[in-house]
Amino acid sequence: MHYVDSKIILSPKNGMNLYRGCTHGCIYCDSRSEIYNMNHKFEDIEVKQNSLELLKKELIKRPKAMIGTGAMTDPYIPLEKRLKYVRKSLEMIYRYGFGFTCITKSDLVLRDLDLLKKINEKSRVVIQMTLTTADDELCRILEPNVCPTSRRVEVLKTLNDEGIPTVVWLCPILPYINDTEENINSILDYCIESKVRGIFCFQMGLTLRKGNREYFYEKLDQHFPGLKEKYIEEFGQNYELPSPNNRKLMEIFKTRTSQEGILNNFDKVFGYLMEFPQKSVQTKLI
């Protein structure tokens, strides 16, 4: 890891990234793409050492809203266990009355359950969890350095039991790897059991561009010999790589989520994430 000073910590839409880079090792990660201009090794985590100071300044002056993190780097990477930047940011988010949402694959989020509950009582919290495969053995290939799917489902159930709403990212679905009816139905079973409020799923497939394409193909050669050549023949240098089963799998996704009352439209799920109904807090007269 290495430290840097950052000029800003919150985007205009209240997104933040306390770290840059990741050690989860997901073979398909778009954040490896050259378009993001990361000038250091992806696994060499960039830590924004002044991020908490910047966050405090922003929270003091900004209108109350949801603060989001995890779009570029999972906030609960192993380094967070020691540095606790996320936890310290949650303390400030609670203090200044903001809401919080994050995207993660890690059970480390449960370390902060006490703070998440306090924030949710005062304003609002939604935790987003990525699920790609119901098969833990396959999960250890696709996402090798983070807890497997079965553990993530336990996290979702715990959050639900504690009154914290959840949303799932059902992506990416890799052609000829996890794009089966059995896998999609099993993940949807998990979502229904965990009482998730919404699921993001744009299509069954993945995206590749320079930077993450090379890493992904290296891992295909390592774990799925011959599949890289099939990808190249079928998709060439395309950015979007839809599963040949996309239509059928999307029908399953839309039908089952609609039947269960789970939000499945991107705009509606995103709108749900960003809702900020300030809760009234009664104070005692002394």
Across the major sheet, the strand order is: 2-5-6-7-8-9
Give Rg in angstroms.
19 Å
Which spans have pLDDT < 50 for at least 5 consecutive residues? 280-286
Average of per-residue pLDDT values: 96
* β-strand number: 11
- What gross morphology would you assign? globular
Helix content: 25-40%
In short:
The chain has 11 helices and 11 strands. The chain has 286 residues and is α/β, with parallel strands linked by helices. Helix 7 (181-193) links the parallel strand 8 and strand 9.
Description:
It is built from eleven helices and eleven strands. It is globular and about 55 Å long. The relative contact order is 0.13. It has helices spanning 51-61, 80-83, 85-95, 113-122, 136-142, 149-161, 181-193, 212-223, 227-235, 246-260, 266-274, and strands at 2-4, 15-16, 19-20, 46-48, 66-69, 99-104, 125-130, 166-169, 198-200, 205-207, 240-242. The termini are far apart. Helices cover 40% and strands 14% of the residues. With 286 residues, the chain is an alpha/beta fold. The chain has a six-stranded parallel sheet, with helices on both faces. The longest helix is centred in the last third of the chain and has 15 residues, at 246-260. Helix 1 (51-61) runs parallel beside helix 3, helix 3 packs parallel to helix 4 and helix 7 runs parallel beside helix 10.
